[in-house]
Amino acid sequence: xxxxxxxxxxxxxxxxxxxxxxxRHLAQRIEEPMEIFKKHPSVFQGAAGRRVIHxxxxxxxxxxxxxxLYHSAWLKTIxxxxxxxxxxxxxxxxxxxxxxxxxxxxxxxxxxxxxxxVKCLF
Length: 122
Fold this sequence. Notes:
Layout: H1 15-38, H2 47-82, H3 100-114
Helix pairs in contact: 1-2
């Protein structure tokens, strides 16, 4: 969780969808060993096993809250960007081709749709 404040984001992915993807990837990485351990319940007996379960639950909860935090913040920005949707994307002036906030919104929706996160938005 050392990259919690500034996670490593893949190229060509917006910051919001990159952070959500980062959180989901970490959650998947800690889920795989737990599935193996579930096949051997004797591993969880004793104080060390309870400590592992407690730590797993805490990290999973933090990652889920992180994902929800960024998704809800993204939903709030949609209301702000909605005003920008009334502007023209392409202007007659060649120096200003698009509204950057609208363009970033389209990229966010594209990446979040790819992660099956935004299904019923439209």
